[in-house]
Amino acid sequence: MHQLETVPYALERLSDTNAIARAEALAERLKQRRTCRDFAPDPVPRAVIEAAIMAAGSAPSGANHQPWHFAVVETPAAKRAIREAAEAEERRFYGADGDKAKAGEEWLTALADLGTDADKPFLETAPYLIVVFAQRKGGIAEDGETQNYYVNESVGIACGMLLATLHEAGLATLTHTPSPMGFLRQVCRRPEWEKPVMIVVVGHPAQDATVPVHALKKKPLDQIASWL
Ligand code: IYR
After folding, report:
1. Could you tell me what percent of the chain has a pLDDT over 90?
2. CATH classification of 35-206 is 3.40.50.720, yes or no?
3. Model pTM greater than 0.90?
């Protein structure tokens, strides 16, 4: 019989007052995070990126297979390659070259409030791009053979923890998802069983960066929660 090895569940118990204060304080800080689309070229410490990836890597995952890989892109050549490929896809998405937009009318209308377009200079300006890959297979053995479970859910949680940690370090982020983004596999030299999920653009905001008011409108509690 398999003997399950365990360690004690170590978690400091807080008073209710303290628990509420801590939860409210973190909620308030996380609420300040907003997507940035205009980055300063200023460098950020590599140690912050490493710590944020370690935080992401501590996320829960199916069978604890940790089915993720974070490719940190910092060289101008690699950033340029990503920008060129991403903008080519975005031009098709927005119909920027005069062809019919791949995005339907409804999608383009929904995006109008954010003011996005096919130009993605931040892919070169920001000091770091973290390309997140989901390992459909081979999470634990890195062999492309072992089956992984709940890959999308696991990677989604890890991305949230990555964003939260970068925000806590005072950095601005943008989750960028050119579509399709198979080209990221080539640029980042990742195997075919890994699926690129998103580019997390990281850096300081440009001095004149702005946030669309639409992005500030978050639903109140009674619209996102129910109690049974
Ligand atoms: N990938 C495109 C389009 C885009 C789609 C959604 I949904 C957004 O929330 C934002 C943008 C782009 O990056 O412009």
Report:
1. 93
2. no
3. yes
